[in-house]
Design brief:
The protein has 202 residues and is of the alpha+beta class. The chain has 5 helices and 11 strands; from the N terminus they run βββαββαβαββαββαβ. Helix 2 packs parallel to helix 3. The longest helix is centred in the middle third of the chain and has 18 residues.
């Protein structure tokens, strides 16, 4: 049974290495919020490992399960990206990415060998990666008069909302992630305040 109010993700980046017949597979795991976050990480790793023959990867983002991608980066089809994604999914993770950097060792591993190597490298890296539970949040834009700042901030803190951006002028706009399981309580309290409106965003 999937709890729709929480999800599992990676606490912080980690890596692990797997070797097979001279080939070296280094798996890097890290948390991601967007595809752009992922692309930046991939570029950094390509710079860090310019001599690697492959940079295969998989990621899953968001809680609806529809935003994911995997790449074999030149390895035989289905031997790298799918096994990597399979490991992410077997742990039930989202907002998580794994890139496996391969250094060629001179011996062909064959399809079963490759699948095993990418799967094993990913599994090893995920074993040393702290997994954390996070609240599923709904994005809201809260607009209010500056005089209401303290009351709005108290509600945000009380219900563990995540402040994503805060524009403070005479009229303030806070973009916040409100925990889905507390959404009705938060909106009820905000709507109780004068000169405060909360609108769903993004």
């Amino acid at each position: 049974m999937i709890n729709e109010d929480f999800y599992l993700t990676i606490g912080k980046p980690s890596n692990a290495e797997f070797k097979d017949r001279g080939s070296k597979f280094i798996a890097y795991t890290f948390p991601v919020e967007t595809a752009d976050d992922f692309k930046q990480q991939l570029q950094l790793l390509k710079k860090e490992h310019p001599k690697a023959v492959h940079h295969c990867f998989a990621y899953r983002i968001g809680t609806d399960g529809n935003n994911f991608r995997s790449s074999d980066d030149g390895e035989p089809s289905g031997t790298a990206g799918k096994p990597i994604l399979g490991q992410i999914d077997s742990k039930g993770l989202t907002n998580a990415a794994v890139i496996v950097v391969r250094y060629w060792g001179g011996t062909l591993l064959g399809v079963p060998g490759l699948i095993n190597a990418y799967k094993s490298a990913t599994a090893l890296a995920l074993q040393v990666t702290p997994v954390i539970q996070k609240q599923v949040e709904v994005l809201y834009s809260i607009e209010f008069d500056y005089t209401r700042m303290n009351e709005v901030m108290m509600i945000i803190k009380q219900y563990n909302c995540t402040v994503l951006s805060n524009e403070t002028q005479l009229f303030c706009v806070i973009k916040a992630g409100i925990p889905r399981n507390r959404l009705n309580d938060v909106l009820y309290k905000l709507n109780d305040l004068q000169n405060v409106t909360a609108k769903k965003s993004g």
